[in-house]
Amino acid sequence: MADPIPEYARVFMEALKEAEVDMVTTQMWPGGVQPETGEPIIAADCSADDAVVTLSSPTVGASIGYRIAGETPNHWHLYSGTFHAQQSQSIEARAIRYGYRESEISRKELCQLAVPYSGSH
């Protein structure tokens, strides 16, 4: 004869798992749809020597990760405040908030100089 306790425990754990999923989808995600973290905004204040980079996210409470193209190793950093970069570098940033999908990656070439028009009219 099979022991009824393991079967009871299995049924109970399955019910708890379903209740947890239901709680997450109804309480954390409006309409049961997981929201996406807003794409981060990359701003650069260019001076004669370098660029001061500021990152922000339209999603309140999101954490932002960034990486600098050409940096070795090319790994992600957790954004904690403005930082300095070379004017010629480009930055990639991605945001995530707990319970949300990751944002798309934002990309920005820092301090691109405008090229004067040299054509004739």
Mean pLDDT: 83
Relative strand content? 25-35%
H and E order: HEEEEEEE
Class of the largest domain, according to the CATH hierarchy?
A: Mainly Beta
Per DSSP E runs of 2 or more residues, the count of β-strands stands at 7
Structural class label: alpha+beta
Biggest sheet statistics? 4 strands, antiparallel
Total individual domains: 2
What is the CATH T-level topology of the largest domain? Answer: Immunoglobulin-like
- The assigned CATH architecture of the largest domain is Sandwich
Distance between the terminal alpha carbons, to the nearest Å? 96 Å
Strand order of the largest sheet: 4-3-6-7
Provide key terms for this protein.
3-stranded antiparallel beta sheet, alpha+beta, single chain, Immunoglobulin-like, 4-stranded antiparallel beta sheet, 21% helix, 7 strands, 121 residues
Please, could you describe this protein's structure?
With 121 residues, this protein is of the alpha+beta class. The protein has two domains: 1-32; 41-109, Immunoglobulin-like, CATH 2.60.40.10. The protein has one helix and seven strands, in the order H-E-E-E-E-E-E-E. The chain has one helix spanning 4-28; strands at residues 41-46, 51-56, 63-68, 77-78, 83-85, 90-96, 106-109. The strands form two sheets. The chain has a four-stranded antiparallel beta sheet with strand order 4-3-6-7, with no helix packed on it. It has a three-stranded antiparallel beta sheet with strand order 1-2-5, with no helix packed on it. The longest helix is centred in the N-terminal third of the chain and has 25 residues, at 4-28. The radius of gyration is 24 Å and the shape is elongated. It starts with a helix and ends in a 12-residue tail after the last strand. The relative contact order is 0.20.
